[in-house]
Known about the structure:
Elements lengths: L5 H4 L1 H16 L1 E2 L9 H7 L10 E2 L2 E2 L5 H18 L3 E3 L5 H12 L5 E5 L15 H4 L2 E5 L10 H11 L3 E5 L9 H11 L2 E5 L4 H6 L11 E5 L10 E5 L4 H12 L5 H14 L3 H22 L3 E2 L8 E5 L7 H10 L2 E2 L1 E3 L13 E5 L1 H5 L4 H16 L4 H17 L4 H6 L1
Parallel strand pairs: 1-13, 5-6, 5-7, 7-8, 8-9
Antiparallel strand pairs: 2-3, 4-10, 9-10, 11-12, 12-15, 14-15
Helix pairs in contact: 3-11, 4-11, 5-10, 7-8, 12-15, 15-16
Bound molecules: pyridoxal-5'-phosphate (PLP).
Amino acid sequence: MDxxxxxxxxxxxxxxxxSEIGRERDSLVMIASENYASRxxxxxxxxxxxxxxxxxxxxxxxxGGCDYVDEVERLAVDRARKLFGAKYAxxxxxxxxxxxxAVYLSFLKPGDxxxxxxxxxxxxxxxxxxxxxxxxxFNSISYGLDPKTQRIDxxxxxxxxxxxxxxxxxxxxxxxxxxxxxxxxxxxAQEIGCYLMADIxxxxxxxxxxxxxxxxxxxxxxxxxxxxxxxxPRGGIILSEKKYExxxxxxxxxxxxxxxxxxxxxxxxxxxxxxxxxxxxxYQKQVVTNAGVLAGELMGSGFDLVSGxxxxxxxxxxxxxxxxxxxxxxxxxxxxxxxxxxxxxxxDKKGPKVTSGLRLGTPALTTREMKEKEMRIIAxxxxxxxxxxxxxxxxxxxxxxxxxxxxxxxxxxxxxxxx
Length: 419
Ligand code: PLP
């Protein structure tokens, strides 16, 4: 076997990875769904377990030689259950979308009606969007936000659910800055006799430490990604009560997946272990504090925020009254090293490629240990760039601020040493 390392064997891929390290290190990552996984998580996922086929579950596999992958999957499951206080955890879904797919296909039939939050109001593609399997395999309807409060209108959810009788209601979002009342959703689901699935992909880290009310023990199924606020490797999980174990296990394998990604499951185990450590609560508290400070500063500078603020890790700026679109704002900030994404806002008149909104998140900056002071600096920088996006001296000054912050709050020092 050729045992040369990546740098020698494949300089092109090696070069692209080095460039990505530099990009992540030298920019302010403010995409709400991104984070920096720890060295231990990254080490765990880059391991020989990628070689191993392990269809099935620990102790009941369809392949020999599974002793050690069984060990890591058991660790991942036990830690996930402990972290979220769940009776059952499945750590095999390759992604958040696949966790959702496994739940739907385990309990619904093609053509059944599902009901999630409108994508344009902050929902996710896999909650019934017509361009996603969830909206083509199933019929779907969506609830939106109240036009005045820009928060979930639970009465509208209830009325729609009573009228249309979906088989499942999905509570969860990709761009919703407020707390979600899972108990209200459960009451509605119970009233019409349907399932409730909570998708906590974005808020999983906050839920794990009790900074967001948990849907575990409330919703029938809880799905999540592991790579956002939870700060693990890219992947998905499903949590539920014991009574759904058999159906969910079969729904994931053989239902929608073959062999699990055992190297990723090893990294999930590490991430859950990190999330169980006391420092994780402090981290999540700071994530929320930082988002609050950023929101306050931006509003103080005259920016409109969807729902007038935030309760969690993200902010949605409404640019409608400004002379800049979401797309232009994303590009302008990108030019100074602030990485964000354009995002539709509720009742957006512009299409998803342009948008009137900008989504900002604090999980990655907080991993770099930035705090309130830095959020004020960054809010000022965002204001200056968005108000004068073509002014070269503003952009140059902003680039310097970004560079100073990145140097003061370093990341990936261990990778620099390896070079
Ligand atoms: N659910 C929600 C609420 C999300 O925000 C996302 C990703 O952004 C997903 C599911 C899907 O996760 P993945 O990209 O891993 O498929």
